[in-house]
Backbone:
């Protein structure tokens, strides 16, 4: 992709609404956001202070929207934003931010810094200053239907394995089903056991569900790269499929940013409410379990802990369902330090893991997760996001740690299977 500075500046300027302006005006430069960001805490590099990552947008706000900013530019007392600033900040805006939301939790004046970085990426992506890995993933999502290039045929091949393993028929394009489920490409390629677990659980709980051949991909690279146009197109595909099948709910799978995209950003992107509801798989499993539709037994006594996916727990509010489920299947579940809505990111969300250039930094900031796990001495880590899972597995391998990572839906299905067999 080529660079277009003028277009990028115009796009960045369009993001500066009253909310963004209020955030910039109220920053008291306390630096607390730095201590919340693992890219700063694990490197001590002041450039990774969250509010500093917003410097290009702050300067544009000042020069175009404040009296003193315009005055200073006229008198030559400050310099306008340049193309070199886009080039210099690209790494800070993409490689060193997972959009994890932790900085927003600690800002004493309530600045949602994560929202601001998400907005800043809109200008950077239009200017062409975004990581090639994310540009390619977004292109594949728009043209093929999935950021990893998964086609319907690939999904069908994975589903036929699931059918063979379970003896169950996987419903496809069933009009009037209650639930339409989405999968992330990573689940199809790396963790088909998630699909198998869903099939077993839904069969046991007699859930009326379907997959759509028109829209099965949950992930949304448009959100990660910062292109509302691409994000809207990807959300629209899911909405059109769900509304044409007439389902009551769409299930967001074990993928963090997919949940943010479809549940929180989606209606704003398409400019209207959906005719169905979004539910995260963990919320649904918890509801089924509480309604007595899932009999779980045979709680494991292996000591284990839970890594909270940022977009599901901190940004998504799904805090209790994973814990309620773990209470049913894991007798020796222990919380990490800083668990729940203040847990530390895996280091690879927000498109960082799709950006090869950031691999070294991502593995460096894994120090924090390693410390959290080693402080507990557990050998099993449960999570609920396929991207977190890959990133955690890579970090664990890099550090030569003796820890297994499993998905929570899979763990629930294992206990369901144990009961069914007994
Ligand atoms: S959203 Fe997370 S990674 Fe990004 S600046 Fe804030 S704390 Fe750091
Ligand atoms: S925590 Fe909030 S007020 Fe403090 S420097 Fe960061 S953005 Fe500014």
Residues:
């Amino acid at each position: 992709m080529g660079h277009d500075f003028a277009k990028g500046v115009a796009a960045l300027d369009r993001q500066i609404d009253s909310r963004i302006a209020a955030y910039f005006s109220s920053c008291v430069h306390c630096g607390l956001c730095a201590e919340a960001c693992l890219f700063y805490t694990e490197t001590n590099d002041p450039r990774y202070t969250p509010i500093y990552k917003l410097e290009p947008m702050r300067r544009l706000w000042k020069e175009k929207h404040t009296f003193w900013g315009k005055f200073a530019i006229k008198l030559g007392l400050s310099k306008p934003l340049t193309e070199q600033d886009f080039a210099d900040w690209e790494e800070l805006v993409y490689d060193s931010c997972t959009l994890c939301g932790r900085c927003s939790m600690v800002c004493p004046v309530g600045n949602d810094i994560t929202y601001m970085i998400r907005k800043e990426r809109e200008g950077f992506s239009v200017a062409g200053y975004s990581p090639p890995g994310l540009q390619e993933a977004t292109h594949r999502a728009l043209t093929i239907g999935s950021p990893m290039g998964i086609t319907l045929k690939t999904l069908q091949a994975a589903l036929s394995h699931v059918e063979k393993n379970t003896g169950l028929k996987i419903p496809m394009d069933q009009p009037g089903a209650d639930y339409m489920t989405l999968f992330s490409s990573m689940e199809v390629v790396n963790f088909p056991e998630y699909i198998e677990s869903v099939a077993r659980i839904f069969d046991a709980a007699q859930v009326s569900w379907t997959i759509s051949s028109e829209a099965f991909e949950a992930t949304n690279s448009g959100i990660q790269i910062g292109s509302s146009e691409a994000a809207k197109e990807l959300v629209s595909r899911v909405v059109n499929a769900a509304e044409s099948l007439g389902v009551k709910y769409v299930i967001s799978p074990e993928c963090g940013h997919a949940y943010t995209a479809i549940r929180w950003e989606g209606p704003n992107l398409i400019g209207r409410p959906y005719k169905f509801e979004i539910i995260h798989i963990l919320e649904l499993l918890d509801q089924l379990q509480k309604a007595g539709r899932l009999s779980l037994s045979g709680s494991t006594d292996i000591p284990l802990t839970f890594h909270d996916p940022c977009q599901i727990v901190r940004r998504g509010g799904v805090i209790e369902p994973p814990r309620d489920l773990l209470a049913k299947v894991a007798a020796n579940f222990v919380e990490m330090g800083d668990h729940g809505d203040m847990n530390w990111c895996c280091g690879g969300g927000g498109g960082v893991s799709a950006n090869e250039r950031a691999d070294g930094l991502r593995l460096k900031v894994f120090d924090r997760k390693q410390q959290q796990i080693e402080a507990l001495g557990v050998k099993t880590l449960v999570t609920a996001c396929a991207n977190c899972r890959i990133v955690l597995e890579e970090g664990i391998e890099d550090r030569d740690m003796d820890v297994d990572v499993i998905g929570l839906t899979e763990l629930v299905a294992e206990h369901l299977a144990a009961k069914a067999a007994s």
About this structure: DSSP finds 22 helices and seven strands in the chain.
